[in-house]
Amino acid sequence: AEGYKVAMIARNRDALAGFESRLGSEGIDAAGFAADLSNPAEVAKAFAAIRARYGDVDVLEFSPTQWNKGGYESTQALATTVESAKYDFDLLVLGAIACARAVIPRMVEKKNGALFFTTGYSAIKPIAFITSLCIANSGLRGYAYCLQEELAPKGVYVGTVSINAFIADGTAADPLKIADVYWDMYRK
């Protein structure tokens, strides 16, 4: 709505096509790029394609979800294993690092840009029944805070939003309401 072009990364090509169509019908130039954010090589390839199509990324919003990946289930504290924690950590923390590293150098050169990281509420208050996800959300939030400390003097903003609801149209966690929060943070 503010004139930005939108590049989206997701594993699911059909979901990307649906978002492209929806945004296109609203007059927004949007394109999807298929990649698994837990795979650094796929992330690098996706950002190379984004730069080829749109140029530099001005704003990065990182909010992957693992709910639609077959067989995924966050684990409780006693059931958490290295493998279950690694799955969430690879997607949320290492995926965020890979995405951030793809855009930060140019943002720092231009002394302008913004990175937004979305987490669940478990980044703030531990929730035992999703311990493996809680560990990763907390790690992502910590990474974002550390990035902000280093990047703010370089003209790049880093912010986080932790959401304690399932995102759905017409609810308190309506995507447009969340977008307004990001836009307000970006402007200020």
Question: Layout of SSEs?
Answer:
Layout lengths: L5 E5 L2 H13 L4 E5 L5 H15 L4 E4 L19 H29 L2 E8 L10 H21 L4 E8 L11 H13 L1
Parallel strand pairs: 1-2, 3-4, 4-5
Helix pairs in contact: 2-3, 3-4
Quick structural gist:
The chain is α/β, with parallel strands linked by helices. The chain has helices spanning 13-25, 40-54, 82-110, 131-151, 175-187, and strands spanning 6-10, 30-34, 59-62, 113-120, 156-163.
- Give the tally of β-strands: 5
Shape: globular
What composes the largest sheet?
Answer: 3 strands, parallel
Unreliable residue stretches: none
The oligomeric state of the chains shown is single chain
Please, could you describe this protein's structure?
There is one protein chain. The chain is built from 5 helices and 5 strands. By secondary structure, it is of the alpha/beta class. A 3-stranded parallel sheet has the order 3-4-5, with helices on both faces. The chain has a two-stranded parallel ribbon with strand order 1-2.
Which structural traits does this protein have?
alpha/beta, 188 residues, single chain, two-stranded parallel sheet, three-stranded parallel β-sheet, 16% strand
